[in-house]
Write a structure and sequence with these properties.
Helix content of chain A: under 10%
Number of strands of chain B: 11
Oligomer: heterodimer
Number of helices of chain A: 0
Helix content of chain B: under 10%
Structural class of chain A: mainly beta
Strand content of chain A: over 45%
Largest sheet of chain A: 7 strands, mixed
Structural class of chain B: mainly beta
Number of helices of chain B: 0
Largest sheet of chain B: 7 strands, mixed
Order of helices and strands of chain B: EEEEEEEEEEE
Chain lengths: 106, 126
């Protein structure tokens, strides 16, 4: 099985800050990685696919990057509406998620 | 507009069965695979199973945690996917989501998920 290790588990930042969330795969996944945002009581919402492709309708302050087996989600100019839990998901071999990162906007 | 609506959740005793449904609209259901995920209370997301489009055999695959107990089926005439859950355990308690994949290859390989239902809560308890 492919393991996804996501960090940090929580973070708190102010409006306008840049935040980064990291996900590391236990083996090569050829950049087949997606990022989702989930708000309490709601379904996940796709943000990024293939490591760096922005899903249609997602604000451009969200971006993704990759370096080998390490993947990063960056939120530029954090907004109050970005308070949520973020998950990475590999889809190279079946599907596994990172543990999630809860983002609090101060 | 793509829509997915889960139904069938509820309270069930350990060892009993439950069938969830995912009613869809707004896309060519017969051409699409479908997947189920779950999320235990306060926990992260877990893949449950995936069913291929019939053009690619219509087979289903499952996570090890549910294999042999859960079965996914599809009714293309009604654009509905089902998740039959047997021999339920307390650890199956979760919100269950169905989701539509976007697949890079064929209809079932290298898929991420662009539309999700709202989820249905399954509680397994005495």
């Amino acid at each position: 099985d492919i393991q996804m290790t996501q960090s940090p588990s929580t973070l708190s930042a102010s409006v306008g800050d840049r935040v980064t969330i990291t996900c590391r795969a236990s083996q090569s996944i050829d950049n087949f990685l997606a990022w989702y945002q989930q708000k309490p009581g709601k379904a996940p919402n796709l943000l990024i696919y293939k490591a760096s492709n922005l899903e249609s309708g997602v604000p451009s302050r969200f971006s993704g990057s990759a370096s080998g087996t390490e993947f990063t989600l960056t939120i530029n100019s954090l907004q109050p509406d970005d308070s949520a839990t973020y998950y990475c998901q590999q889809y190279y071999y079946y599907w596994t998620f990172g543990q999630g990162t809860k983002v609090e906007v101060k | 507009e793509v829509q997915l609506v889960e139904s069938g959740g509820g309270l069930v005793q350990p060892g009993r069965s439950l069938r969830l449904s995912c009613t869809t609209s707004g896309f060519m259901f017969g051409d699409s695979g479908m997947s189920w995920f779950r999320q235990a209370p306060g926990k992260g997301l877990e893949w449950v199973g995936f069913i291929r489009p019939k053009a690619y055999g219509g087979a289903a695959e499952y996570a090890a945690s549910v294999g042999g107990r859960f079965t996914i089926s599809r009714d293309d005439s009604k654009s509905i996917a089902h998740l039959q859950m047997n021999s339920l355990k307390t650890e199956d308690t979760a919100v269950y989501y169905c989701s539509r994949p976007v697949c890079v290859y064929d209809g079932y390989r290298l898929c991420y998920f662009d539309h999700w239902g709202q989820g249905t809560l399954v509680t397994v308890s005495t």
